[in-house]
Amino acid sequence: MKQAHVMIAGAGPVGLVSALVLAEAGVRVTVAESSPGLNQDFRASTFHPPTLDMLAPYGLTPDLIAQGLIARYTQQRDRHEGVVAEFDMQLLAGDTDHPFRLQCEQWKMTKLIQSKLEKMPHVTIHFNAKVESVEQTGDKAITRLAIDGQPHQVESDYVLGADGAWSAVRRSQGIEFEGFTYPERFLVISTAFEYADHLPKLSYVNYCSDPKEWCVLLRVPTLWRVLFPTKPEETDEDVMGDVLVEQRLQALLPQDKPYETVHRSLYKVHQRVAKTFRQGRVFLVGDAGHINNPLGGMGMNGGVHDAMNLCKKLLAVIQEGQSQDILDRYERQRRTIAIEYINASTARNKKEIEERDPVLRKKTQDELRATCADPVTAKAYLRKTSMLDALERAESIA
Ligand SMILES: Cc1cc2nc3c(=O)[nH]c(=O)nc-3n(C[C@H](O)[C@H](O)[C@H](O)COP(=O)(O)OP(=O)(O)OC[C@H]3O[C@@H](n4cnc5c(N)ncnc54)[C@H](O)[C@@H]3O)c2cc1C
C-alpha cells in the first residue's frame, strides 16, 4: 500500500504540532517554511491547561514546564486601582491535569518539536521554502513552492495550510478571510525591569483595564512583557522609538531613571475567520484559518486545538480506512469554535479592557468581583477562559 504523504505549509507552532502528531503515527510529512529557520518572534507566551494536556502524550509538556513559569493565578486589574479579581486556576483541578497557565514563549515549543522531527526519517523540513500555490486533482494535491528561490513541486495526499495570517495556501484556494482589522496596532515591549517589586500583588498574568490606555503585563521566565494599544495616528517609527516607549512605560510606573528595554514589536490586530477550513484535500489550521486579538491568549492555543482535531481525523482516514466525510467534521467543529468562541471572547475581552463609559466599567468590575468570590462561578469563568468549554462544545458538534 502507498504510504500517505502530508504536506504542511509553515513551521510555526501549529504546523509543527500537526507534523508531530502525523509523524509520530508513521505518516510521511513534508514541511515548508519560508524563513531561513524557526521564527523567534515575541508572540504567544501563554499555554492554556487543555493545550498542555494535549501536548503531554507527545512528551512536550514536561519540557515546556521546565522552560516556563507556572501561573496559578490570573488577574483582572484596574490600571490605577490595582487588583479587581484574582482567579485561582487550581479550581480546575479534576478537569485538567494542568490547572494553571504556563508562561512560556511559543518558540520554545517549536524548537522542541523540531528536535523530535529531525530524528524521524519520514519527515522532511525545508527552510527558505516559500509555498506559492496548491492545485488539486482527483486524488492528490500539488504544492508549488520556491526553495532557495528555485521552483519545486511536491505531490501529496493532503495539504495543511499552517502558513499564518497571510496564508498563501488560503489565497491560492480563493478562500475569503472574513472580518476586520482594528485601526490601532499593539505594541509589545519586553524589559528585565522587575514590575513585581513595584506594583503590589502582581501575578504572572495581569490584564489592566483603563479608559485612556489599558495594558497587559505578562511574565515570561526572564522578562516582563508589556502590551499597549497604540493610537491609529501614531507612526510605526514613533511608536517604536525611544521617546514614546519611555513615555508609555513612565506613565505606567514612574521611575527616576529611563527604562531599559530588550525587545519591541508592533502588531496589526485582526478578527477574521476563513469562509471555509476545508477545500477538498486542503485544510486551514491556526492563524491561516482564524486570527484574533491576543487578549486571552487564544490564537496559538486554538491553533494547536485545530491541529490535534484535524490530524486525528486524518489518521483515522489514512490508517483506519474511515470515510473522507469525517474530515468535514473538522470544519464544522473548529470553524464554529473560531467564530463563536475564540473570536467572540477575544473581541469581548478587548471591549471590556478599553471600556470608557464609567458605568459600564464599574458594572464589569463588579461582575468580575462577584464571579471570583464564588468558587462555582469562578470555576465556570476559568473553564471558559482556559478554553476547556470550547473543546467540550466542539465535541458536541456532529
Ligand atoms: C502580541 C501577541 C501575543 C500573542 N500571545 C498569544 C498567547 O499568549 N497565546 C496564544 O495562544 N496566542 C497568542 N498570540 C497569537 C499567536 O502568536 C498565533 O496565533 C500563533 O503564532 C499562530 O500559529 P501558526 O503556526 O498558525 O502561525 P504562525 O505562528 O504565524 O506561523 C506561520 C509560519 O508559516 C510561515 N509562512 C508564512 N507564509 C509562508 C509561505 N508562503 N510558505 C511557507 N511558510 C510560510 C511563517 O514564516 C511562520 O513560520 C499572540 C499574538 C500576538 C501578536
Give an overview of the whole structure.
The chain is an alpha+beta fold and 398 residues long. The chain has a domain at 5-71 and 97-178 and 271-351 and 389-395: FAD/NAD(P)-binding domain. 36% of the residues lie in helices and 28% in strands. The chain is built from twelve helices and 20 strands. The strands form four sheets. An eight-stranded mixed β-sheet has the order 6-5-14-15-16-13-17-20. A six-stranded mixed β-sheet has the order 8-2-1-12-19-18. Helix 1 runs parallel beside helix 4 and helix 1 (13-24) packs parallel to helix 8 (299-320). The protein is globular and about 65 Å long. The two termini are 31 Å apart. The model has no long low-confidence stretch (mean pLDDT 96). The structure holds flavin-adenine dinucleotide. Flavin-adenine dinucleotide (FAD) binds next to helix 1, strand 9, strand 13 and helix 8. The site of flavin-adenine dinucleotide (FAD) has 35 residues, from helix 1, strand 9, strand 13 and helix 8.
Quick rundown:
By secondary structure, the protein is α+β, with helices and mostly antiparallel strands. It is built from 12 helices and 20 strands.
The CATH homologous superfamily of the domain at 5-71 and 97-178 and 271-351 and 389-395 corresponds to FAD/NAD(P)-binding domain
Give a list of the ligands: flavin-adenine dinucleotide
Unreliable residue stretches: none
**So how many helices?**
12
Radius of gyration: 21 Å
Strand content: 25-35%
CATH architecture of the domain at 5-71 and 97-178 and 271-351 and 389-395: 3-Layer(bba) Sandwich
